[in-house]
C-alpha cells in the first residue's frame, strides 16, 4: 500500500524517519509531500495513495474526489475539523485522529498562558499568582485532565464541567452547570472540539459571568468562542482577559481596543513541541499499518 504524508508544515526529521521505519517494516511504501505551496500539488500526490497522513492540512471534498484509491486518512493530532468527514464517509474512507499524542504539549501551553496573563504579559506592574486561584475546565478529555493535574500541582483549586469525573482527586470538584463554572472560577480553560453544537457556545452570557479579573484561556478552536460576545464582554468589563492559541478573526482590532486584556499566539502552537510532533506522527503511521494488517479502527471519528 502507498502511504502519503502530506504536510504543508512538515513533521520533524526524526518523526519522518520514524514514520518511514514503521511503514516500510510493515511492507508498505512511503511517499512524502512536504512544504507544498499549491492545492494542485496535493491533488496530484493523493491520486494513487491508499492512505493519507496530514497535520493541519485540509482534506476537502475535492481532495477526496482526487484520491481514487484512498482507504484511510489519519489526522496527526486530536482535532479533525480540517477533514471533510461527510465526503470521506460517502466514499467509505475511514478517518482517524491520534488522541492524546499532543495533549501534554497543549496542557503545558495552557498553564503557560495563565502565568503569562497573570503576570501582565511579562511587563511592569503587580501581577498575581496562580496558587489559590480557581480554575474551571470546560472539556475534560486528555488535555483537560492533564491541565487539572498541573494546576493542582501549582496549588490551584480545580472545578470541572463534565458528566463524568474520570479520575477523582481531593482538589477536583465537578459541576453540571456551565453558568456555575464561569461564575465561580478565576480562570476558565476551554478544551472542546469545534462541532455544530459547540461553535459559539462560549458566549457573552458565560464570559460576562466571570469573577473580577477573570481570564478565559482557549487552546481549542477559535469557533467555540463567540467573537461578538467576547467583544461585548471585554468592552463592558475592562478587568476581564482573554488568551488564546487561535487568534479571533478581528484580533488586530481587538488588540488595538483592548490592549493587554487580550493576547493571541502568532500561530497555533499547542502541538508545537518536538515531542508532540514525533508522537503524533509515529502514532498516525502505526494506526494506518494496524488498519491494513488487522482492520483496526479504534480511533475512527467518522463512524
Based on DSSP secondary structure assignment, what is the total number of beta strands?
12
- Strand % is 15-25%
Structural category is: alpha/beta
- Largest pleated sheet: 7 strands, parallel
**CATH superfamily annotation of the largest domain:** NAD(P)-binding Rossmann-like Domain
Structure notes:
Helix 3 links the parallel strand 3 and strand 4. The chain is built from eleven helices and twelve strands. The protein has 303 residues and is α/β, with parallel strands linked by helices. Helix 5 packs across helix 6. The chain folds into two domains: 123 residues, NAD(P)-binding Rossmann-like Domain (Rossmann fold, 3-Layer(aba) Sandwich), CATH 3.40.50; 162 residues, Rossmann fold, CATH 3.40.50.720. The model has no long low-confidence stretch (mean pLDDT 95). It is elongated, with a radius of gyration of 21 Å.
Short description:
The protein folds into two domains: 2-101 and 272-294, Rossmann fold (3-Layer(aba) Sandwich), CATH 3.40.50; 103-264, Rossmann fold, CATH 3.40.50.720. The chain is 36% helix and 17% strand.
Amino acid at each position: 500500500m502507498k502511504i502519503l504524508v502530506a504536510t504543508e508544515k512538515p513533521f520533524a526529521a526524526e518523526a519522518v524517519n520514524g514514520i518511514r521505519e514503521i511503514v516500510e517494516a510493515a511492507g508498505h511504501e512511503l511517499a512524502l509531500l512536504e512544504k507544498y505551496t499549491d492545492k494542485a500539488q496535493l491533488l496530484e500526490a493523493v491520486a494513487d495513495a491508499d492512505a493519507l497522513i496530514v497535520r493541519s492540512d485540509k482534506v476537502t471534498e475535492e481532495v477526496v474526489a482526487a484520491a481514487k484509491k484512498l482507504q484511510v486518512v489519519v489526522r496527526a493530532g486530536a482535532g479533525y475539523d480540517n477533514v471533510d468527514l461527510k465526503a470521506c464517509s460517502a466514499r467509505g474512507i475511514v478517518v482517524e485522529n491520534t488522541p492524546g499524542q499532543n495533549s501534554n504539549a497543549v496542557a503545558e501551553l495552557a498553564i503557560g498562558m495563565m502565568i503569562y496573563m497573570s503576570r501582565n504579559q511579562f511587563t511592569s506592574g503587580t501581577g498575581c499568582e496562580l496558587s489559590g486561584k480557581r480554575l474551571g475546565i470546560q472539556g475534560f478529555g486528555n488535555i483537560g485532565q492533564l491541565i487539572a493535574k498541573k494546576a493542582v500541582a501549582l496549588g490551584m483549586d480545580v472545578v470541572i464541567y463534565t458528566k463524568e469525573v474520570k479520575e477523582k482527586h481531593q482538589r477536583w470538584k465537578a459541576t453540571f452547570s456551565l453558568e456555575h463554572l464561569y461564575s465561580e472560577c478565576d480562570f476558565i480553560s476551554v478544551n472542546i472540539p469545534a462541532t455544530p453544537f459547540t461553535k459559539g457556545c462560549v458566549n457573552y452570557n458565560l464570559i460576562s459571568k466571570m469573577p473580577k479579573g477573570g481570564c478565559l484561556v482557549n487552546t481549542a478552536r477559535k469557533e467555540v468562542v463567540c467573537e461578538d460576545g467576547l467583544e461585548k464582554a471585554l468592552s463592558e468589563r475592562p478587568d476581564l482577559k482573554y488568551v488564546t492559541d487561535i487568534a479571533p478573526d478581528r484580533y488586530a482590532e481587538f488588540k488595538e481596543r483592548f490592549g493587554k486584556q487580550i493576547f493571541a499566539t502568532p500561530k497555533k502552537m499547542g502541538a508545537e513541541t518536538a515531542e508532540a510532533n514525533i508522537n503524533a506522527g509515529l502514532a498516525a503511521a502505526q494506526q494506518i499499518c494496524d488498519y491494513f494488517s488487522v482492520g483496526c479502527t479504534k480511533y475512527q471519528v467518522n463512524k
